[in-house]
Amino acid sequence: MLKKITEYYNRIELPKVRAKVSEYKEENLEFGRECRLRYIKQQITELNDDIDDTLELISEVEDEWLRDLLTDYHGIEGKLKRLKSFQYELEHKDSSKITEEDILAARQVDIISLDLIPNTRSIGNGRYACPCIFHEETQPSMVIYGKGKGGFCFGCNRLFSSIDIVMHYHNYSFIEAVKYLINK
Ligand SMILES: [Zn+2]
Question: Could you tell me the CA-to-CA distances from 39 to 97, 110, 153, 161 in Å, in that order?
Fold first, then answer.
C-alpha cells in the first residue's frame, strides 16, 4: 500500500508541486525586477532634482572657491556618478543580473585609481599602506596590493577588493558596486 502511495505521489503529485514551486519562483523574480526598476526611476528623478537645485544655487555664487566648496559639500560628484550608474541600469533593463565575468572585471579595477581611500602612501612594489577604513585606528595596518589584487588589514584581518571599497564609500549594494566598476 505504502509503495503504491509513494509511486502515485512521485508520478502524479510531485510534478505538480514542482511546477507550482517554479511558477512561484518565476513570479517572485519578476516582482523583484519590477521593484528594482521602480526604485531606479524614482532615484533618477530625485537625483536629477537634487542636482538641478544645487547647481542653480551654486550658479548664483560669484566666488569660485565658494562654488567649489558648495559643490563638495553637496557631494555633486558622487551624485552624478550614482545617477550615471542608475541610468545605465535602466537602459540595460535586465541588468539586475551580473555575470561572473562582470565580478572578475570589477575586481581588476585598481583600488588606488578609485581615489576613495584617504592617507594612502606608497610602500614599494606597487603596494600602499593606510589606516584601516573598516576599524578605528591612526596607525596604518591596511595594505593595498597591486592592481586587481585587493588588500588586507592586519589589524582586523579583513580581506577586501575594489568591490568592497566602492560598497563602503558609495553605500552601494554588491551589484551596484560591480556595475559601477565595470562602467568606469
Ligand atoms: Zn582593519
Answer: 16, 30, 35, 27
